Input
Amino acid sequence: MQGRKDIAVKQSIPKHLRYTVEDFNREFPNDDACLEHIAEERFPGGRAPCEKCGVERKHYRVSGRTAYACDHCGNHIYPLAGTIFEKTTTSLRLWFYAMYLMGSTRCGISAKQIQRETGVTYKTAWRMFREIRTLLSEDLRLDGPTEMDETYFGGRIRSHQRKERSHDNKTAIIGMVERKGRAVAKTAISAGARTLHRLAKEHILPSNTVYTDEATGYDKLASLTDDAGKNLHSSKIYVMGDIHTNTVEGFWSLIKRGIGGVYHAVSQKYLQTYLDEYTFRYNRRDQGNLLFKSILAEVSKRASKSRASVGSEIPRE
Ligand SMILES: [Zn+2]
Output
């Protein structure tokens, strides 16, 4: 199992990439600090467009509320609006802490663990992780030599089922991994040539070399053409026969160990979001536990800005 060794060895994080729980407690001691962080990311320096004034104004924190008020007319804006925190009744600091834990473990953390550690209900913990995972999907186009492979997840095989039907209850996962870098993993109903081709086209830049093993779909992939007979992907596709595609194999072992070890039963419905989490982590494996900051940054990046001033829809704390 390639990959297992370097995970066991690489326990200590270089100093400049460390972000300890003490660092976390210092930077985010309470809900206010967390709110101010989001507000500053969305409205740097407190400057935001005021709907009533029609121009950008400085806004000040309204005490006891999650609102900021225009310094000219007093109109409120809500930095949490449009974010995953918009409707939450859970403490903001707990959300931040869940993201911290998610970014500080190499293999992920389960809802059970955060339930034990913080005392929230399992349901709340599970919902928090589900929301956080929605921040982690990436739309990447891989570049450079890339390995492509498929694996299957879930679906118990019943003994009376015929062997060739053994993938029936399983979800296919297609992995694409740059030899020296990033990865994309997508669930699919099947790993047929058309699916592989579509994913290669969507996620691998043309003209790159794609390495695969000898699975049937890839043989076809190399020669797949459109209606006009033109090759659909200009990448050179090499089928490697018995030679293992080591980079993608390492990626699989990381994903399988993580999902198998931490999330004991991942339903097919949410499998893609777990893959997104693992891929996000894999693609930032050189960040140490500053990974937390990358996760946190996605909150504001993915917030819908237009909704920040829709006051009436925002829950009061
Ligand atoms: Zn105003």
